[in-house]
Every structure is written in C-alpha cells, then in structure tokens.
Amino acid sequence: MSRATIEQLRQLGLDSYAVNQMAIADRQAALDAASARVDSALATQFLLPILTPYPLDIIQCECVIASWTLLIARGYNPPVGNGDDNLAKMYQYWADYLDRVSKGEIVPNVNAESVAAPGASGPTVITATTRGYSERGVWPNNFPTADSDPFSSD
Fold first, then answer.
1. Environment class of residue 52 by beta-carbon count within 10 Å: exposed (0-12), middle (13-18) or buried (19+)?
2. Which residues, listed in sequence order, are joined to residue 115 by a DSSP beta bridge?
3. What is the predicted pLDDT for the residue at 132?
4. Which residues are 64's β-sheet partners?
5. For residues 122 and 69, what is the distance between their CA atoms, to the nearest angstrom?
6. pLDDT tens digits for range 108-137
7. 3: closest CA among 45, 32, 43?
8. Are the C-beta atoms of 26 and 70 separated by less than 8 Å?
9. Predicted TM-score (pTM) above 0.85
10. CA 128, chain centre distance (Å)
C-alpha cells in the first residue's frame, strides 16, 4: 500500500495528460512498487511502517519513482522534448536520495516514534546456558565425570 495517492502522483510526478492516459490500476501498482522501494531504504533507519503525517519528501520520492516506472512502460523518449529527460533527472535524484537515506547520510523528517532504537534494526540473538564447552577444554585427559562440572575450577 502506497503512502502517495493517485492525485499526488499527478501533482508531483508525471504531468496530468500523461497520467490520465494510463489505467488507474497501473498507476496504483506503480505507486505500490515505489512505496516498497522507499520502505527498503527507510527500514535501515526506521521502524516500519512510518507514522503519519508522512514527510512530503517521501511522498514526492514515491511519486517520481512511480512516474519513472510508468514512463518506462509507456516508452522513454527524451529527444521529443516532452519532459522525459527532466523526469529521468528527477528519478536519479530520488534514487540517490534513497541510497543516502539507507546509509544514514540523510534523515527524513519522520514521526519520532518511528525511529528505531540503536541496534533494533538487526536480529536479536539470545542463547541459553552453556552447552559443555569451555575455554580450557576437556580433552584429552580431563573428561568430566557424572559427578563433576567441566566448568568449575580445578
């Protein structure tokens, strides 16, 4: 599910004529795919889903990426002077933006409750009690017996 709407796609992405020539289902699918791409960058720095209100830069990023997806489906033709080249430059800007977000170089203005605690973005590993291994080892001459503890001092 995308954060951006079809109307925002028209306002912040492709011009209204180009958008209106495409099926609503295609426009929504492009927005959903763009939202997933944005989420992959945001997930490195924030807990998902991010909370509303959504930052306008994230909305615009989704719209431009979705517009690029739709443009590629329609056919990319920059020499005609129809704005395709401008959209290509905008797409590259937002692709670089997402790369920098994922590296932590840019921090979008998301709701503070969406910010992940340090170390919270990775897996948590919890181990149980030791399983019979020790630094000093038990081989070859000091096998534990049924009434001894291999981890106790000698």
1. exposed
2. 46
3. 57
4. none
5. 31
6. 988 756 555 555 555 566 665 555 555 555
7. 32
8. yes
9. no
10. 33
The secondary structure of 45-88 as a DSSP string is: TBPSSPPSSPPHHHHHHHHHHHHHHHHHHH---GGG-SSHHHHH
Residue type, 57: D
| Residue 95 banded pLDDT, cuts 50, 70, 90 | very high
In this structure, are residues 34 and 63 in contact, taking their beta carbons and an 8 Å threshold? yes
**Using 50, 70 and 90 to split pLDDT, how confident is the model at 87?**
confident
DSSP string, the chain: --SS-HHHHHHHSS-HHHHHTS-HHHHHHHHHHHHHHHHHHHTTTBPSSPPSSPPHHHHHHHHHHHHHHHHHHH---GGG-SSHHHHHHHHHHHHHHHHHHHTTSS-----GGGBPPTTTTS------S--S--SS---SS----TT--TTS--
Tokens matching residue 69? 């997806």
Letter for the amino acid at 135?
E
Q: Tokens for 145?
A: 């017996």
